[in-house]
Write a structure and sequence with these properties.
Blueprint (H helix, E strand, L loop, with lengths): L6 H25 L1 H4 L3 H27 L3 H25 L4
Length: 98
């Protein structure tokens, strides 16, 4: 009988991949930040790192908060929205729109 890949295993591997991508791109951005500072490539790399970090921390954080009270779930969603808005506004300012 072949092993079946469950949804949880698939989600965990996605989280692990995003955590690795976030770590790699953050390290790359810190190392070569001066070269790409202010450029479109630097802005895009920074956004990809932030999104990968968001995915890498959002799922485990929700798994943790799910077992707590309703107030903690509300705080989680507010923090998640604030982080996402920060990524969008950071992208817009990186492109010179704002």
């Amino acid at each position: 009988m072949a092993k079946q890949r469950t949804e949880r295993v698939a989600k965990n591997s996605l989280v692990k991949l995003c955590a690795f991508v976030a770590l790699f791109l953050s390290a790359f951005t810190f190392l070569f930040g001066g070269i790409f500072a202010g450029s479109i490539a630097g802005t895009i790399l920074d956004l990809v790192a932030k999104i990968a970090l968001l995915i890498g921390i959002a799922f485990p954080a929700y798994d943790y908060v799910r077992g707590l009270g309703k107030a903690w779930r509300i705080i989680y969603w507010i923090a998640l929205v604030i982080y996402a808005l920060g990524c969008v506004f950071g992208l817009l300012s990186g492109f010179g729109v704002m």
